[in-house]
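Proteins fold. Shown next:

***
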Amino acid sequence: MTDAIGIDDFLKVDIRVGRIVRAEPFPEARKPAIKLWIDFGADLGEKKTSAQITAHYAPDALVGKQVIAVTNFPPRQIGPFMSEVLVLGLSDESGDIVLIGPDKDVPLGERMH
């Protein structure tokens, strides 16, 4: 179990929903990954990231999918690609990542509460 945090700590993490509008293989990555461009609506616009999700997802099948991401981490350089957000997922039995997203469409940019 991890240390308990207060509500103020939780509220510092900006977790929002976005829609994947573009996805491409990322062959330059050290571990197999996919580059994602995600639309977070009018306030945040489009942000990009890479994710090690190749076990369960093909780039063309991701376009249109709503995902949850942390949007207020500082950008991080991953090889030749600048990652601006962190998409959230869970490990399956094999340790491969399964993306987290709403089970019904919600407005882009909606913040998790």
